[in-house]
Amino acid sequence: MAVKELSDGIFEVQKSGKRFIGTKNAVPGSAVYGERLVEAEGDEYRIWDARRSKLAAMVLKKMNIPIKSDSNVLYLGAASGTTVSHVSDILTDGLVYAVEFSPRTMRELIQLCDTRLNIIPILADANHPASYAHIVEQVDVVFQDVAQPNQAQIAAVNCEQFLKGDGHLLLSIKARSIDTVANPGKVFKEEVKKLEKEFDTKFQILKKQDLAPFHDDHLGLIAQKLLR
Amino acid sequence: MKIITWYGILTLEENGVADCELFNKDVDELAEGLLHQNAAGARAPEAGFDIRAPAISFGFVENDREYDSLLRDVSIRAGKLRISRTNTPDMRIIQAVEALDDIDDAANALSERLSEWYGLHFPELGFSSEQLARFVKEHGARSNIPADDPIFEKASSSMGAELPPADEELVKQFASNICDLYDNRHSIEESIVRNMGEIAPNLSNIAGPLIGARLISMTGGLERLAQLPSSTVQVMGASRALFKHLRSRAPSPKHGLIFNHPLIKNSPWWQRGKIARALAAKISLACRTDVYSGELSPAIKTGLEKKVNSIKSSNPKPPAREKPSGKGRGKGNKNSGGRR
Ligand SMILES: C[S@@+](CC[C@H](N)C(=O)[O-])C[C@H]1O[C@@H](n2cnc3c(N)ncnc32)[C@H](O)[C@@H]1O
């Protein structure tokens, strides 16, 4: 059994011949959404399933995750907190601001916040960053997984408001229209183009990667804000 | 310039934050404040503005750690408040309406099964749904039907197969479960009627409590319903049928939900469109009254009755032209509701 840290707080755990990625459980003994817990080298890890999390898929696709243990992260489209819980594990010395606009889903996210000390739940529409600008500070990383047609624009306005100079954007882009199932590559190109236009050359795209087979029709993208 | 943050109102001048009017350091108060952040005259922080630093420099909190934990407490409290406030009585009505639909789906499926099952034994019975379930629950095998029952003749000459005692027990149990579903349905309906009388007395009075509850359920809440134009209210429910029609070749919709209203159902086809328009207008008015005053206003109903009477007396006969046919019906269809 061996543990290797791939990047801050993200581990590759080998157990009985299998390899997993996981995060060190900030609340030992308890699972969040039914994920497996494994002991390795005296620590407990929560197995992180790439099929349930775009961020985990990005890790497996060898994208360099720019989240540090002391980062502050703005997470857009938190849902019930599957991925947020792992980000919360990674941030041993930072906060994750978790924005979600469905009250029904927020109900579950808040239960997660009750057990973890570094998640700030925000019930708001990510289209309107001004509606939570009185709560959210400047952050090192914006992670977005809203799966909306105007995803590029949502990322742009939030980075404009909250992302520090030289901060990173992690984006999950969903190919949306049906006929593009045949050719998601084309949609991705268009989305990236749109993004570049929204960003108006304020960003450098570091890496983009198809998230298949973990997530069909999804592209992962990492970009860095350019200092001005 | 003044900007608002979760912990206070900052006054910005050219060279930075000049002043900070700190809020009371109380989790409940701060959480309430988050919900009503649009305090007069203050704006959201500008892009790129760091809201954390002034909280510490103006002494709201001592350090980053305290900032983190207080902000967390306040956000969680605010989130819980907002969620509990979205659980309004109309949300419970919506759940009840959806439960009715679920029960109908389940009861229909089970009743069909009962009909097939019991049909092996007594195919001539001719009952269905609730009536069948009540019958089977009460009698079981057809040999138990007393001689003075009108069904007795049919039962004793039935071509159906025997029903062994073990099967009879099973089928009775099955029927009894279906009856429970129907009983449950009745009590849910009663509770909807009661609750509608409390939260939407005017809507109940005009549309009827059950149609009113369905309108609320379709829009997602009483307030939203009150904001819809009455032309939308008039055709609501038709679009759902329309989607179903497009998806699954169900019959194309003739009309919206309010066409189940007795005022429309019991009127001749050529008056229905006009009455629907009048009814929808009064439904909108009723909802707004429910949202803004909550008091029953009998004038809405008298107004509606007057309007309907005048429609009836000025359109006593079908229009001279024959009932429009073929393509010409297209537009009238929605309003006429003439054909089933
Ligand atoms: C694909 S799910 C996110 C899954 C989540 N990131 C995870 O991995 O656990 C998308 C979520 O974004 C939310 N969402 C969509 N549009 C939004 C918006 N404009 N503002 C905030 N949340 C939004 C949806 O309610 C949904 O919960």
Descriptors for this entry?
heterodimer; A: 228 residues; alpha/beta; Phosphorylase Kinase, domain 1; Rossmann fold; 2 domains; seven-stranded mixed beta sheet; five-stranded antiparallel beta sheet; B: 340 residues; mainly alpha; Nucleotidyltransferase, domain 5; Helix Hairpins; Serum Albumin, Chain A, Domain 1; 3 domains; three-stranded antiparallel beta sheet; 3 strands; 5% strand; elongated; binds S-adenosylmethionine; Nop_dom (chain B); rRNA biogenesis protein Nop56/Nop58 (chain B); Nop56/Nop58 (chain B); Nop_dom_sf (chain B)
Provide a brief overview of the structure.
The complex is a heterodimer of chains A (228) and B (340). Chain A contains 5 helices and 12 strands.
Question: Helices, strands, pairings?
Answer:
The complex is a heterodimer of chains A (228) and B (340).
Chain A: E1 2-7, E2 10-15, E3 18-24, E4 37-40, E5 43-47, H1 54-60, E6 73-76, H2 82-90, E7 96-100, H3 103-115, E8 119-123, E9 139-144, H4 151-162, E10 163-174, H5 184-199, E11 203-210, E12 218-225
Chain B: E1 2-4, E2 8-13, E3 16-22, H1 27-35, H2 52-57, H3 64-86, H4 89-119, H5 129-139, H6 152-156, H7 165-199, H8 201-207, H9 209-219, H10 222-227, H11 230-235, H12 238-248, H13 262-265, H14 269-292, H15 298-314, H16 329-336
Antiparallel strand pairs in B: 1-2, 2-3
The structure holds S-adenosylmethionine.
S-adenosylmethionine (SAM) binds at residues 53-54, 77, 79, 82-83, 99-102, 105, 125-127, 145-148 of chain A.
3D architecture notes:
The complex is a heterodimer of chains A (228) and B (340). Chain A is 25% helix and 33% strand. Chain A is an alpha/beta fold. In chain A, helix 4 runs parallel beside helix 5 (184-199). Chain A is globular and about 50 Å long. The model of chain A has no long low-confidence stretch (mean pLDDT 90). In chain B, 63% of the residues lie in helices and 5% in strands. Chain B has helices at 27-35, 52-57, 64-86, 89-119, 129-139, 152-156, 165-199, 201-207, 209-219, 222-227, 230-235, 238-248, 262-265, 269-292, 298-314, 329-336, and strands spanning 2-4, 8-13, 16-22. In chain B, helix 1 packs across helix 3 (64-86). The complex binds S-adenosylmethionine (SAM). S-adenosylmethionine (SAM) binds at residues 53-54, 77, 79, 82-83, 99-102, 105, 125-127, 145-148 of chain A. S-adenosylmethionine (SAM) binds next to helix 2 and strand 7 of chain A. Chain A: Belongs to the methyltransferase superfamily. Fibrillarin family. Chain A: S-adenosyl-L-methionine binds at residues 82-83, 100-101, 125-126, 145-148. Chain A: Interacts with nop5. Component of box C/D small ribonucleoprotein (sRNP) particles that contain rpl7ae, FlpA and nop5, plus a guide RNA. Chain A: GO terms for molecular function: histone H2AQ104 methyltransferase activity; RNA binding; rRNA methyltransferase activity.
